[in-house]
Specification:
There is one protein chain. Helices cover 46% and strands 19% of the residues. By secondary structure, the protein is of the alpha/beta class. It has two domains: 167 residues, Rossmann fold (3-Layer(aba) Sandwich); 178 residues, Dehydroquinate synthase-like - alpha domain (Dehydroquinate synthase-like, alpha domain, Up-down Bundle). It has a four-stranded parallel β-sheet. Strands 1-2-9 form a three-stranded mixed β-sheet, sandwiched between helices. Strands 7-8 form a two-stranded antiparallel sheet. β1 and β2 form a beta hairpin. The longest helix is centred in the middle third of the chain and has 18 residues. The chain is globular, with a radius of gyration of 20 Å. The N and C termini lie far apart (41 Å).
Length: 349
Amino acid sequence: MRGINITTNTKTYKICIGENIFSDAIDSFIIEQNPDKIVLVMDENLFDVLKEHDLLKKHQYIKIRCTEKNKNIKTIIKILHFFYLQNISRKSLVINIGGGVLTDVAAFACSIYQRGVRYINIPTTLLSMVDASFGGKTGINYKNIKNLIGSFYHPDIVIVDTNFLKTLPKRYFIGAYGEIIKHALIYDTNYLDYLMNKNHDLVELIEKSILIKKSVVGDDEFETKGTRKILNFGHTIGHAIESYSQKVKKTLYHGYAVAKGIVAESWISYKQGLLTEQESEKIINLINKYNLNKKLKFKIDAEEIITMMMKDKKNSNNEIKFVLLERIGKAIPDQTVPKNLIIESLNLL
């Protein structure tokens, strides 16, 4: 089992990574912390996998249907009511088990119940292992805008057990590489070269991505300096496309939407005189290599997507702010882009 310490101005916690470590790691943490009560919030799809586990036999749990559509205030109320019925306290422990939607929603509920109860995350998808389960961002969608309502609230520990990936549909496993490739593009050219060879060790891959995000988050916990904003590369356009896909009922999984955003925002970086044409082509080739260039099942309405982009949390002065690539391995936040270039990039998709 490998361990990475995440340190911010407000909290230090550990991420444990390995195969088949779930039970031992969680038992050790519970013994060490001795909470007055334990409850579980879990993705309903994991019930059959975990129904014989001691955690479900010993403690009360709530099952959540984890879709982007259910990432809303109704689900938050449902979880809060469960906490109320179980009479949990600030000395209790909430165990969140699931992918990025589950950890985002459950952690947000933990952040507002009694002004904050303790929780740990057990990510069960590759996307949540490398990105969503740590860093402190929690939230829900509102009016088709991704994560418009949320908070910063860190877990006490994150346990990454790659054994859970055996339960994951292939499309979700592939889609996670949208975020993984993003990590390489914004921070580490060596990691990008590592990704060019698809025969990599999974635990090592997850560790490399976590270490990149750790460095960024540790320097700018609340996204006030601007440093942390680079993690949003590919997300300005990617989130808007994802939100639009839900509106037209042709939902595009987050990782694939981010990959679309990476392609579009890399092209904008090139047109803005930052990336070279060769670098832009290298990025597109890598996206294709991991089968992320999924054909959209809907026609893009550029004007409506730009309207959605105007709701992005990074914006200021009523301007859409992009993260662009100055070169592969170096991202720059708070960039404005002419509207005609945004429309052209969307039409390319």
